[in-house]
Design brief:
The structure is a single chain. The protein is α/β, with parallel strands linked by helices. The protein folds into two domains: about 140 residues, Rossmann fold (3-Layer(aba) Sandwich), CATH 3.40.50; about 210 residues, Dihydrodipicolinate Reductase, domain 2. The longest helix is centred in the middle third of the chain and has 17 residues. The chain has ten helices and 15 strands. It starts with a strand and ends in a 5-residue tail after the last helix. Helices cover about 30% and strands about 20% of the residues. Bound molecules: NADP nicotinamide-adenine-dinucleotide phosphate. The site of NADP nicotinamide-adenine-dinucleotide phosphate has 31 residues, from helix 1, strand 2, helix 3 and helix 10. NADP nicotinamide-adenine-dinucleotide phosphate (NAP) binds next to helix 1, strand 2, helix 3 and helix 10.
Length: about 375
Amino acid sequence: MSVRAGLVGVGPVGDRIVRCLKERDFPLAGDLCVAATRARTETLGDEEFAVQALSEDDFENSLEFFEGLDVVFFAGREGAKGASATWAKPAIERYGCYCIDNGSDFRMDPDVPLVVPEVNMEAVTPDTKLIASPNCSTIQMVVAIWPLHQAATIKRVVVSTYQAVSGWGGAAQTELCEELERLLECGCVDNCDPSIFPRPIALDCLPHIDRFLPNGYTKEEMKMVNETRKIMGVPDLKVTATAVRVPVQIGHAEAINIAFEKSLDADTARQILSDPAQAPGVVVIDGPTDDPNAIEFRNAPEELQYPTQADVLRDEYKDMVLVGRIRDDETVPHGLNLWCVADNLRKGAATNVVQIAAQMLEQGILG
Ligand SMILES: NC(=O)c1ccc[n+]([C@@H]2O[C@H](COP(=O)([O-])OP(=O)(O)OC[C@H]3O[C@@H](n4cnc5c(N)ncnc54)[C@H](OP(=O)(O)O)[C@@H]3O)[C@@H](O)[C@H]2O)c1
């Protein structure tokens, strides 16, 4: 069984989708068809691709890109003129392809499933042609908290994020490097590209991701609230978020405080999250370590180990959600604190959409 697949968008997420398809031996029928706003040759993964142009001004010709494709991964930009808003529905109507979208345009549409395979793959049926993948910070949080919700029913979540610049897009990684160079050369960064971040990000943290909304929260924070409720199927779940951009290239971290209805202590939470059958996609890094590489960075070998953003770049962790610092919240009944990190470009985006397609294949929806 093999699948004719397309990719729209060749930024860091598009690049990681190509890598994930290859690493997972996704059964492609023929070459992956690739499109962006301009035609050119691009290296994605380690392969060169002829990128086709999609243009609204040449709508009919551009739409032919989708002809014959079974599934299309969207990794373009969002908004009214964005990739999935322009092309997904016409491609479905004209050619019947399944479209899996990394962007936010359709996430809260009641007719579009919002899917994290470890949590709610059952939301995808043969009739759901358009499938949305959540925001990167939402994905890693629900992978970590869903198994705990199964065990003790979550009442409330308070989350603070520490999000890498690559969450904005490829241009933000260049912006951080350039600002850091100027900082080293001149001792300060007095300007920045305001189309990326509102203030310099070099050696600073910005509690501002996406636009501010009338309620004082940012769009990113409300995405975490609303998407978590939709994925977990708990429309009135209490979730409150503070989203912070930090000068890290890749990898989002989150400090999560959870209140449960039933009792769940830190040891039990650690056991649940350490069991791949109960907590697929999670790796617990929490407790004393005997890893000599880990000890090298610490004063005392008995110190607790914990994951950081740098760990998600390691090959064995790049598609996982790493959880540590699991401890009882001693200020409330049935409260827990934990820390989680994941690669925002992989599990936060590319890996999630490739996993969705792979499971659709397994379930006979695709192929
Ligand atoms: N970065 C993350 O951590 C993350 C996590 C979860 C979800 N996402 C979402 O994933 C998507 C891609 O992210 P990214 O970081 O790779 O973005 P990016 O660096 O901005 O790249 C966007 C790509 O999409 C193409 N594109 C934009 N508008 C298009 C249109 N109307 N038609 C066709 N192609 C179009 C661009 O084409 P050109 O190259 O020709 O300009 C570019 O190749 C975004 O929707 C983002 O919100 C990102």
